[in-house]
């Protein structure tokens, strides 16, 4: 019989981060980076087992795993309630949960249900989590905190056949700008990281060939997702008097500059 995992006691100096989509990919990499730096973590995602794997891969971390669907307002309320019960402070929300939506479907044949699913996760889910975090950060003492939204280079240069994903990432940029303004009186900083071709399970197909603007299928270079995580940590650990509103980190040779 194995011993139950012991959660380290709270540290009065530890900063607290809530990460959505923390069970894999960018969210998992950011959790590992922040956890290794001594942050207390609240890990959110659809499947508890993947969140637990993320938590168990970080030595000595104090972390709470909460299975939640960010597109569901009741789940978001439950998530932030659990986070408040775990630790009264919230210093960072990394709004990372997202989905690409269906691939290979011509725009004129895209089902409305597919559009709704991408919008609900990428945009509405980010809004719901940001709103809940904003309330916590405004009310806590000392006041303030930081929200980092996971955007995409698609907010600047879309791929063929990506209308729902690209539209939501443009919307997320507007949300980031509005939060940056609305948060100023309360020491709430907001930034966005736009990522291009980080190596994760979601981007594995890029090494085998993805559609280009000229209709060709071509493999694209990938970068280590750990480099993304280090960028997020840098943004997160700035004093609240400083902010990076937008950062772009991408595989150097990907067809982004000059795409189209």
The backbone outline, from C-alpha atoms, is: globular
Distance between the termini: 58 Å
User: Helicity range of the residues?
Assistant: 25-40%
Task: Give the number of helices.
Answer: 6
List keywords for this structure.
260 residues; alpha/beta; Rossmann fold; 7-stranded parallel β-sheet; 9 strands
Task: Summarize the topology.
Blueprint: E1 16-20, H1 25-36, E2 40-45, H2 48-56, E3 63-67, H3 73-86, E4 92-95, H4 112-139, E5 145-150, H5 163-182, E6 188-196, E7 210-211, E8 217-218, H6 225-236, E9 246-250
Helix pairs in contact: 1-6, 3-4, 4-5
Write a structural description.
It is a single chain. The chain is an alpha/beta fold and 260 residues long. It has one domain (16-250): NAD(P)-binding Rossmann-like Domain (Rossmann fold, 3-Layer(aba) Sandwich). The chain has helices spanning 25-36, 48-56, 73-86, 112-139, 163-182, 225-236, and strands at residues 16-20, 40-45, 63-67, 92-95, 145-150, 188-196, 210-211, 217-218, 246-250. It has a seven-stranded parallel beta sheet, with helices on both faces. A hairpin with a 5-residue loop joins strand 7 (210-211) and strand 8. The model has no long low-confidence stretch (mean pLDDT 91).
